[in-house]
Design brief:
The protein has nine helices and ten strands. The protein has 263 residues and is α/β, with parallel strands linked by helices. The longest helix has 16 residues. It is globular. This is Methyltransferase family protein.
Length: 263
């Protein structure tokens, strides 16, 4: 089984291989090693902005079980387990998981779009479920979130990150010679170039912020917290090229989602 995932958008590059909806899992198989190398760079926005903000919203994970959907090599989840998380599971297509992982951590190859059909997840409940830049490739986003919601333990929540939609609108407006508004509200799938492998172009469906809110609601979830993390002043001075990128493309949105009691 495979997991269709998306990736963090700390990138600009050129490419030639199109990642159509039916090929996105294959694209991630090719990109996974490049992503891990990019994430490890000193100036990676994942290291400087995204993971610190995600970690803060997760809070104390001691004694908590975590499901990381689209976990890459599992490095972030392993960090959480070393920090006290227990009975945790990472799901990803690549199979390129950490060779040495802590106890209480299990890795599974499974399909993001068929999360409710992964045998080794059947009947399991988790205190925290993570979609860290993996939600964007769900073929049926409502179904995927409903499946995750059903796996939440009492008082559990979903932590979901998504590229700021304005980032893609800016890029597409520049590429197509159109306006920001035209591209932000366009419903057509679009392609962009991966920054981790200069042979791969990814294709995604567009979202507006209201689209995301409506998807969450349809899945029986409500937004407890939403944040748009930025570079610290110190990091901005140390890495002015990253500050310039953030000033133009805004970065990511992070949502802390809870089940709606009426669903």
């Amino acid at each position: 089984m495979v997991c269709i995932v998306t990736m963090s958008d700390d990138s600009q590059a050129t490419g030639s291989h199109t990642d159509s909806p039916g090929e996105s899992s294959q694209a991630w198989l090719e990109l996974a090693p490049d992503y891990e190398r990019a994430r490890a760079r000193e100036d990676s926005l994942d290291r400087l902005v995204e993971w610190p903000a995600q970690r803060e919203l997760l809070g104390d994970v001691s004694g908590r079980s975590v499901l990381d959907v689209g976990c890459g090599n599992g490095g972030k989840l392993a960090e959480l387990v070393r920090g006290g998380a227990t009975a945790s599971v990472g799901v990803d297509v690549s199979g390129n998981f950490l060779k040495a992982s802590p106890p209480d951590l299990e890795f599974i190859q499974g399909d993001l779009c068929e999360l409710d059909s992964v045998p080794r997840l059947a009947g399991r409940r988790f205190d925290r479920i993570l979609f860290l830049q993996s939600f964007g490739y769900a073929k049926d986003p409502v179904r995927t979130l409903q499946a995750a919601r059903a796996m939440l333990a009492d008082d559990g929540f979903i932590l979901l990150t998504k590229t700021q939609p304005i980032r893609y609108a800016v890029e597409q407006a520049e590429q197509n010679g159109t306006s920001l508004g035209e591209e932000y509200f366009s419903a057509e799938p679009f392609s962009y170039l991966s920054g981790w492998n200069d042979q791969i172009t990814l294709t995604k469906r567009p979202y507006t912020i209201s689209d995301l809110i409506n998807v969450f609601s349809a899945a029986g979830l409500w937004i407890e917290t939403a944040t748009e993390p930025q570079l610290s002043e110190d990091a901005g001075r140390r890495y002015p090229h990253k500050q310039a990128w953030m000033n133009k493309y805004l970065g990511i949105l992070i949502f802390k989602l809870r089940p709606h009691p009426s669903h």
